[in-house]
Amino acid sequence: MxxxxxxxxxxxxxxxxxxxxxITVPQAxxxxxxxxxxxxxxxxxxxxxxxxEGYGAEMDSADVAYCVAVYQSHGGGRxxxxxxxxxxxxxxxxxxxxGYQRERRKTKKT
Length: 110
Known about the structure:
Blueprint lengths: L5 H4 L12 E3 H8 L3 H9 L5 E3 L5 E3 H13 L21 H15 L1
């Protein structure tokens, strides 16, 4: 799938049926297999809304599911940029150049 098609495939509307349901950080980490710190960062940056703040904070399941879907579509992993400054899936600005560089790195390793 081309990255330019990503935002058309994964939309927040697809997860609206989960809106208002709560999930804690430890529950989300266990359910999705993603580090709890990742969810906390997404909350801090405003990608995930909190339904309950403080000890035992509860996140909105719809936002969690959306962020996880975007994260997984980018291949997950630490240090990868998956959201832009507006909370939308990050898209490379120069995809042809990025593809060229990726192929070039592969040939250097072999």
